[in-house]
Design brief:
157 residues; alpha+beta; two-stranded antiparallel ribbon; 9 strands; 16% helix
């Protein structure tokens, strides 16, 4: 991960919690160019946010704590082949009411995801962005998001 956020953006919603206006651009994780934001519509990423850079890179908001569920969809959204991550098996949780629990090591999964993307010929990077949601009647504290970037081919080549 980058040592600190590279951008600050505001995401505004109306009273029905629909996005107001365009999603704020963020700096590309490769070239630093402001990248156009978009709502995502595929798989587990549906309803999430992504960015497309003119250099060809694609950035996605993908929380590391959810990377076990988002892993395959991130690869596909980057234009790469889907691949299943290597995960520790889920274990029963006794009398707790939870069926299964498994520890998610987000940093390890990120390293695995990046290795898979590189194996498929992509370059990868990670940045962070501070996000302020603006919602009528309620403005929650700012969040720091991980934005995972992939470029399908070597830059400059």
């Amino acid at each position: 991960m980058a040592p600190g956020p590279t951008d600050e953006i505001r995401i505004e919603f109306d009273a029905q919690q629909k996005l107001v206006g365009d999603l704020t651009p963020v700096k590309c994780g490769f070239c630093g160019t402001p990248s156009r934001g978009k709502l995502l519509h595929q798989g587990m990423l549906a309803g999430g946010f992504g960015w497309d850079c003119p250099c060809g890179a694609r950035g996605l908001h993908a929380p590391l704590y959810d990377l076990d569920e988002l892993y395959e969809d991130v690869l596909v959204a980057w234009g790469l082949d889907s691949h299943t991550p290597d995960l520790a098996p889920a274990v029963p949780v006794g009398e707790s009411g939870m069926l299964f629990a498994s520890y998610v090591d987000g940093d390890s999964l990120l390293a695995q995801l990046f290795a898979e993307a590189r194996r498929q010929g992509a370059q990868v990077a990670a940045t962070q962005v501070v996000v302020q949601f603006v919602i009528p009647g309620h403005t929650p504290p700012a969040w720091t998001w991980d934005v995972l970037w992939a470029h399908p081919r070597p830059l400059g080549g």
